[in-house]
């Protein structure tokens, strides 16, 4: 049996096992996917364990950037971004990929995004994937709002290197207008989202946060004001399927819609039991 996992810290909850174990079964794979809590101080030790014990793994906060220097190589978007969320074990050699980028790009293309001005909340590893996706889709101007402005400035440096104009902002100092609003933080999961999408003039919202039970506060705002949105569960499913294709090769079924439907069923069941 092949063993795959997701690592993060504190990793208080994750829906990744639901998605991947469903896909493994649909593909007829003798494989299992499990969550593993790995603290930052234990990341190096985990890498050596993974070489011997895992066929591949996903990476979530706070390891997406620090893990890059511990891998044997990175490919494609992961190399450009210096951020990894998927790793494959090839005979003890650990190779890093970034499927967040592909998931965001797919979802935005599906909604007809064509390069309009964008406001990104957050400046971590997943925000880097968002910037590359926006650049590839023709975006010329972005704004990055973050609690630590220096981190927003770092992300703007990446955006500038990709040919985009970028302005760094404090999260309490957002008064600009942007067609696309992207939340690349956990904000809105357990508290009210601090920015009003109506005031930013958002025509489309992409919320990378998600909850097991119900909507985030940003998605609730989108629904209340009839703003089109892409929620974090869709991105989670899309990036997971891209990871499965790295591990097992291309496949057409199950589609992201099929997996998304199954995930929603499982979330509804969890809600009914809680």
Order of strands, main sheet, comes to: 2-1-3-5-6-4
Number of domains: 2
- Whole-number average pLDDT? 94
Distance between the termini: 32 Å
The total of helices stands at: 9
Structural class designation: alpha/beta
CATH homologous superfamily assignment of the largest domain: NAD(P)-binding Rossmann-like Domain
Shape: globular
Count the beta strands.
12
What is the H/E string? EHEHEEHEEHEHEHEEEHEHH
CATH class of the largest domain: Alpha Beta
> Do you know the CATH topology of the largest domain?
Rossmann fold
Q: Assign the CATH architecture of the largest domain.
A: 3-Layer(aba) Sandwich
- Return residue spans where pLDDT drops below 50 for at least 5 consecutive residues: none
Helix content class:
25-40%
Q: How is the quaternary structure best described?
A: single chain
CA radius of gyration: 18 Å
Biggest sheet statistics:
6 strands, mixed
Tell me what portion of residues adopts beta-strand conformation: 15-25%
């Amino acid at each position: 049996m092949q063993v795959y996992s997701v690592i993060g810290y504190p990793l208080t909850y994750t829906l990744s096992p639901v998605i991947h174990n469903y896909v493994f079964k649909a593909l007829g794979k003798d494989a299992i996917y499990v969550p593993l809590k790995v603290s930052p101080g234990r990341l190096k030790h985990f890498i050596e364990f993974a070489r011997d014990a895992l066929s591949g793994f996903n990476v979530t906060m706070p390891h997406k950037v620090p893990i890059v220097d511990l891998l044997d190589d990175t490919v494609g978007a992961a190399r450009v971004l210096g951020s990894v969320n998927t790793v494959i074990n090839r005979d003890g050699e650990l190779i890093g990929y970034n499927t967040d980028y592909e998931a965001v790009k797919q979802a935005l293309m599906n909604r007809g995004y064509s390069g309009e001005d964008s406001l990104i909340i957050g400046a971590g590893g997943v925000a880097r994937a968002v910037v590359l996706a926006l650049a590839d889709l023709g975006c010329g101007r972005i704004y990055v709002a973050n609690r630590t402005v220096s981190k927003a400035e770092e992300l703007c440096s990446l955006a500038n290197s990709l040919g985009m104009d970028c302005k760094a902002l404090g999260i309490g100092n957002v008064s600009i207008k942007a067609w696309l609003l992207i939340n690349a933080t956990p904000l809105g999961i357990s508290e009210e989202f601090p920015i009003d999408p109506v005031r930013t003039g958002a025509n489309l919202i992409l919320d990378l946060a998600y909850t097991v039970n119900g909507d985030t506060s940003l998605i609730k705002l989108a629904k209340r004001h009839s703003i089109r949105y892409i929620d974090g569960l869709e991105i989670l499913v899309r990036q997971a399927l891209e990871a499965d294709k790295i591990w097992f090769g291309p496949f057409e079924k199950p589609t992201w819609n099929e997996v998304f439907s199954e995930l929603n069923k499982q979330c509804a069941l969890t809600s009914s039991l809680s």
